[in-house]
Structures are given as C-alpha cells and as structure tokens.
Amino acid sequence: VPLCSVRGVPALLYTLRSSRLTGRHKGDVSFPGGKCDPADQDVVHTALRETQEELGLAVPEEHVWGLLRPVYDPQKATVVPVLAGVGPLDPQSLRPNSEEVDEVFALPLAHLLQTQNQGYTHFCQRGHFRYTLPVFLHGPHRVWGLTAVITEFALQLLAPGTYQPRLAGLSWPGAEGLAHPQQPLVSPCQASSTSGLNKGL
C-alpha cells in the first residue's frame, strides 16, 4: 500500500491492472503486488520487488512502515498488505510495465475520507446474499473488492478517529481484520501467499 505525496497532498497510489492479463481481475483497481517468489526473504521483499517490477518504483526497505492484517481472496489465498511511504511523486511520471499495468493514479486521503465518496457493494450468489464490502467512488476509477478493504485498513491507521468504517460487521473470510488492522511483525513468506504494496505497498 504505497503512501505518497502528490503536490504536497497525502495520497494512496493505485494501479489499474492490464486488460491484457488473464484471469478475473484484469482491468481492476489494485495496489502493486503479487505472489511470493522462492527467492523472496519475506512478504516485504515480495512487495518491494513487485512494486519495482510493475511501476519501476524502487522503495527502500527502511521506508516500509509495517504490515496490515492479512486478508483472504475468494480462492483462499493469503493477501498480506505492506504499508510504505514512497515520498513525493507524480504518478504520471512513472513508467509502469504495460504487460501488467494500464494506468497509475493517486487518490488523496482527503478524498477517501469524505463520506460522499464512500459506499458499499452487496455480493450475492444464486440469488442469495453472501457479504458486503466497501467501495470508494468518484475517483478516476472505482475502488472495490479486496483493494477497498485494504484501503479501509490503511485509513484506520492513517486517520485514527477520523475514518469510521461504514460497515460494522462484514461476513466474509478475513473480515475480522477490520477490527485489528495492524500486524507489526513480518511473517514468513510462503509460496501460496500473495503480497505487495495490496497485496503489497
């Protein structure tokens, strides 16, 4: 989860996944991140490597603030969000890997904290309600799904007492992380884990 400053304004940095990717998440908004490689020492190194591969953005390890609580995607893979400060930048100056990323954009924390930009999505299967997740609106692209959940984690830490989740109880695997969003210790990287500044920084 990359925290940056755009023209002096604190913001979170997002990517729009390439429409050329295979799988259900192509074209979705995400944070940079991906699966652990065997050579990665831990999830932090996965996040930093994936961020450089996707965005060409080198983030020093000492700029990592810590881990947010792990969550799980629909395939039950573990997603470990890594929060890091990447400093001042212009998203338009980045040269993302076009095979993985179509666009890079930033959303100011002030935008994300405005209640008129916050909503929720009900997910149903075969006509039956399953769960509800947050969504952030009125930016260049809609932020939803796990990326919106991880955005909530970050806002709870970055704006304590200011950001209040609109959904008190989420009934989906990993939703318990909303209650305690911070996990200070780096956990071992396993091949089935997913990390990144989302997934990752």
From TrEMBL:
Residues 189-201 have a biased composition (Polar residues). Its cofactor is Mn(2+); Mg(2+). Residues 181-201 are annotated as: Disordered. Pfam families: NUDIX. Keywords: Hydrolase, Magnesium, Manganese, Metal-binding. Residues 1-137 form the Nudix hydrolase domain. One of its GO terms (molecular function) is coenzyme A diphosphatase activity. This is Nudix hydrolase 8. It comes from Mandrillus leucophaeus. The gene is NUDT8.
